[in-house]
Structure formats: structure tokens, C-alpha cells
Amino acid sequence: MAQYSAEVDGVFVALADPTRRSVIRRLGRGPTSVGELAAEFPITLPSFMKHVRTLESNGLIRTVKTGRVRTCVLNRERLALVDDWLAEQRRIWEDRTDRLERFVTEEES
């Protein structure tokens, strides 16, 4: 997992912003044009494009340009990095609490 830390860091940075999380949530329903996505947010198109570039540069989405329309597509595989990291953390903390529980119960008996 350590070799992926830069990738995981980038994904978490990208997901730290509520606008970007909303874009990810919306793209979970299917591909959408940048114009349609941007219309859902009260920010200018150039500001919205910064969010799109952040998501794209961290591999969470990809964009495809057809004519004048740029369409965003969610990269679901990239979200697996977050799942893997969270599963590892959950396992570490469950092991620690299990050891603490054994320590406390053995001391009592």
C-alpha cells in the first residue's frame, strides 16, 4: 500500500472539496457533459473547470471531447484506492482494539 501513497493522497485531496464530491456523486449516475455539470453549481465555468481538472489529474474522472462538447466519465476503479486504504485502516484499528480488549479482560481474570 505504501507505494500507492502519492496516488491515495491525490485522491483524498481531490475528494476533500464538496463541489468535487458532488461531481463524483453525479457522475455515479452516468456520464454528463461539463456544461450540464457546471449548471448545477453556483460558480463560474472557469472555476468549475478547475475542479474538473483536479478530478481528472487525480484519475477520478476522464473527459472525452466530441465536437464542442466535453463529457465527463467517472473512473470507478480509482475509487477502489479509497476503499483499499479504508479497509487497511479498519483492520489496523480492529486489531488494536482486540488486543486492548484481551489485555483488559486477562487482567481482570
From TrEMBL:
Coiled coil: none
Gene3D superfamilies registered for this protein in UniProt: Winged helix-like DNA-binding domain superfamily/Winged helix DNA-binding domain (1.10.10.10)
Residue stretches making up the HTH arsR-type domain: 1-94
Keywords, sorted A to Z: DNA-binding
SUPFAM superfamilies: Winged helix' DNA-binding domain
The UniProt record lists the keyword Iron: no
CDD domains to which the protein is assigned, alphabetical: HTH_ARSR
GO MF terms held by the record: DNA binding; DNA-binding transcription factor activity
Domain of life: Bacteria
NCBIfam families, per database record: HTH_metalloreg
Protein's name in the database: DNA-binding transcriptional ArsR family regulator
Native source organism of the sequence: Kribbella shirazensis
